[in-house]
Amino acid sequence: MSIQKDKIRNLVDRREKALQGGGEKRIEAQHAKGKLTARERLELLLDEGSFEEYDMFVQHRCTNFGMDKQHFDGDGVVTGCGTIDGRLVYVFAQDFTVSGGSLSKTMSEKICKVMDMALKVGAPVIGLNDSGGARIQEGIDALAGYAEIFERNILASGVIPQISGIFGPCAGGAVYSPALTDFTLMVKDSSYMFLTGPAVVKSVIGEEVSQEQLGGASVHASKSGVAHFAAESEQEGIETIKRLLSFLPQNNMETAPLRPTEDSPARVDDALNEIIPDNPNKPYDMYSVIRSIADDGDFFEIHKDFAKNIIIGFAHMDGRSVGIVANQPATLAGVLDINASRKAARFVRMCDAFNIPLVTLVDVPGFLPGTQQEYGAIITNGAKLLYAYGEATVPKITVTLRKGYGGAHIVMSCKQLRGDVNYAWPSAEIAVMGADGAVNVLYAKEIKADPEHAGEIFEQKKKEYVDLFSNPYQAAQKGYIDDVIEPRNTRWRIIRALTQLEGKRAELPAKKHDNLPL
Question: Domain for residue 513, yes or no?
Answer without folding.
Answer: no
